[in-house]
Amino acid sequence: MAVSAQFARTDAVATSCATMPRISLVNPAAEAKSLQQASFHSCWKTGRRLCLHSGAKSASTSETVKPMTIAMTATMPPKADREVSGIYVPKETHKQVTHSILPERLEVIKSLDSWAEESLIPFLKPVEKCWQPQDHLPEPSSESFYEEVKELRARAANLPDDYLVVLVGDMITEEALPTYQTMLNTLDGTKDETGASLTPWGVWTRAWTAEENRHGDLLNKYLYLTGRVNMKAVEKTIQYLIGSGMDPQTENNPYLGFVYTSFQERATFISHGNTARHAKDLGDSKLATICGLIAADERRHEHAYCKIVEKLFEVDPDGAMQAFGDMMKKKIAMPAHLMYDGVDQNLFANFSMVAQRTGTYTARDYADILEHLVNKWNVAKVEGLSSEGRKAQEYVCTLAPRIRKLDERAQLKPKKTPKAGPFSWVFNREVQMW
Ligand SMILES: [Fe+2]
Ligand SMILES: [Fe+2]
């Protein structure tokens, strides 16, 4: 493991993670605008670096606080350990577990079909009401196409390299969508068994994928038109990433899988919301709208996945609690954690450090998401648990404060000298990582 990312912010603990209102499905432009104006603090100028350290002593007690690795930085750096017939294969870093769900819990999942039909499917948005990438790009059949491209390029001309690196990393993450659909279709009891399954879970997974597909498409086309990034390097990274897959440690288990997606959708909501606000700060209001629209989709998806876990807490509180504890113990690895561009063995870690420094996705966000989920699922109040369930409850309820304590302690450490490194995505120009 190359990097254990710790917590480096002394900022007041964000309290903006209270339950978000369900978003309107009728006016995407307004949604995007409201996101840009939301109460999030824009960290573009104040984002701080992530400190790295190996452990800390609690201030109030003498116990050793075990360092916690944040998955936004590389928990599993994609060292190119081997090639098979010239094909890159990422290193396996832990034992992969499969089909861990207990038979009685599989029955619980199977009993939720009609619930999913009534309560999950409505979170999808009809295609005719969805924005499409073309709504926010120069119209190629129009006479004004070249003029529109010129304007786009003028707006993007001032985007700094660190912003571009973060936006490219986010775009590449979105572009690895085949991996995420695959991941959902590994889950026992909810997978799309045929590719055209009519179960609500199959319908959900395909339609969710189709909605998500617009994200990478729009960001990719936009970045292409800016002329600011090395598209070939970006495209190679996407190909490597899809070829590598991901290992979220969800064990084909929908309890684990939906805890993971709940966390992950909120993480992307935060990240895209911040790239929207930063774009606005940097003078590219169209890009701000684009990122805001994507963030709004992520938030709607977050609500949907959270609803599934909420239902699991209702029908099987002990199983849901243990699943939540299990995923948080393993730490939530970001979906692009196996990112590689053919050059940089620590690409994901380096990208993550730029995201941290620019305040796009930070260690503090990780704690905030966890706390948000604890509150949303009313975890502290869940009763009737087994001893394993109670242990998991104690663990997840105390984890966010422990993360923040480490964060505060890390802030007391002397600042490291700034470090920069080249990114192929911006023609190997050096970008400050901390
Ligand atoms: Fe997305
Ligand atoms: Fe998403």
Protein topology:
Elements: H1 28-36, E1 56-57, E2 64-65, E3 82-84, E4 87-89, H2 103-110, H3 113-120, H4 145-156, H5 161-175, H6 177-184, H7 200-226, H8 231-244, H9 254-281, H10 285-315, H11 317-330, H12 347-357, H13 363-376, H14 387-411, E5 420-423, E6 429-432
Antiparallel strand pairs: 1-2, 3-4, 5-6
Helix pairs in contact: 1-10, 5-7, 5-8, 5-9, 5-12, 6-7, 7-10, 9-10, 9-11, 9-13, 10-11, 11-14, 13-14
The structure holds fe (ii) ion (2 copies).
Organism: Riccia sorocarpa
GO cellular component, one term: chloroplast
Pfam family, one: FA_desaturase_2
Instruction: Give the biggest beta sheet.
Output: 2 strands, antiparallel
Tell me the distance between the termini. 19 Å
Overall outline: globular
Number of strands: 6
Give the strand line-up of the largest sheet.
1-2
SSE run: HEEEEHHHHHHHHHHHHHEE
**What is bound: which ligands?**
fe (ii) ion
The pLDDT mean sits at 84
How helix-rich are the residues, as a percent range?
Answer: 40-55%
- Rg over C-alpha atoms, rounded to the nearest angstrom: 21 Å
Strand content: under 5%
Q: What are the segments in which pLDDT stays under 50 over at least 5 consecutive residues?
A: 1-28, 34-78
How many DSSP H or I helices? 14
Oligomer: single chain
Structural class: mainly alpha
